[in-house]
């Protein structure tokens, strides 16, 4: 959904990679789905420089998570998409858009819950050298993020957001005409998105994660404590301890729901038909993958 940011944390990459496959093109889903465990491992290894022993366990855990996702979640994704298709020919309200978002979010939460024991195990195995490597990668990633979102002047940033959102919408609806582009430009111009505030929360989460990992490392044999610490971190990712950021995040979700409804309602019948056909393709891909 446009303007709704998805959760990304380093040690949840395995679970998020599985969910991320849902956003690719239909044919890409079928081609890429079986590669998700490999891609998730590659990303984890890039951040953590896994040892041989860790690699063996992580690859096994990712394969197990992938099989569970295929058997359990793909049919649920398909069922949600089927229901969304039925709404697309008509106009929708912001409340309907938010219900779709919340259902998709609930499905992602199930994936994260299934991944949690595997994440806790890996966190308890990390060395100080690996945590330092994570910090270096975080710094590199932050430099890239700042160059993309903090350094450009406001007009360039708005144009970039317009192009990004246009591309996402056209994936589903097909080429946008001027009336739809006009609605999108108003949405971008009025958006509450604040790169400075978003960046500050990004850095807070990263520091929080590093602190949690070092606390776990200090008593790595205490599995119960490791789980408590990691679950606490994940809770703080979902709900920031910064009350002002909580309100900002909630405003972005509400804005995204309202904006999506306005954009959808500005689409022509042909656009809406194209979107329904796109989701039908997702649905069929998910069911074919689940049946294998």
UniProtKB/TrEMBL annotation:
Determine the domain of life of the protein's source.
Bacteria
Q: Which Pfam families has this protein been placed in? A: DUF6279 (PF19795)
Protein name as annotated: Lipoprotein
Species source reads Acidovorax delafieldii (Pseudomonas delafieldii)
């Amino acid at each position: 959904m446009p303007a709704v940011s998805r959760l990304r944390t380093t040690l949840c990459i395995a679970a998020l990679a599985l969910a991320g496959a849902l956003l690719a093109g239909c044919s890409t889903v079928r081609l890429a789905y079986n590669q998700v465990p490999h891609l998730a491992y590659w990303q984890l290894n890039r951040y953590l420089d896994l040892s041989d022993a860790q690699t063996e366990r992580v690859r096994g855990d990712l394969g197990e998570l992938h099989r569970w996702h295929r058997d359990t979640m793909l049919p649920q994704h398909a069922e949600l998409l089927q229901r969304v298709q039925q709404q697309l020919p008509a106009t929708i309200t912001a409340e309907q858009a938010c219900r779709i978002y919340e259902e998709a979010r609930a499905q992602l939460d199930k994936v994260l819950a299934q991944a949690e024991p595997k994440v806790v195990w890996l966190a308890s195995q990390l060395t100080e050298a690996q945590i330092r490597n994570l910090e270096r990668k975080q710094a590199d990633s932050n430099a890239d993020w700042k160059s993309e979102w903090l350094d450009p002047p406001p007009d360039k940033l708005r144009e970039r957001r317009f192009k990004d959102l246009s591309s996402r919408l056209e994936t589903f609806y097909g080429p946008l005409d001027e009336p739809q582009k006009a609605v999108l430009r108003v949405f971008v111009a009025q958006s509450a998105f604040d790169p400075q505030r978003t960046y500050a929360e990004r850095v807070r989460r990263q520091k929080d994660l590093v602190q949690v990992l070092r606390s776990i490392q200090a008593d790595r044999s205490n599995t119960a404590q490791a789980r408590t610490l990691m679950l606490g971190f994940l809770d703080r990712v979902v709900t920031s301890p910064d009350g002002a950021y909580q309100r900002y995040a909630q405003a972005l979700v509400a804005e995204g729901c309202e904006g999506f409804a306005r954009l959808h309602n500005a689409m022509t019948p042909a656009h809406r038909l194209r979107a329904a056909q796109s989701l039908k393709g997702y649905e069929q891909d998910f069911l074919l993958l689940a049946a294998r």
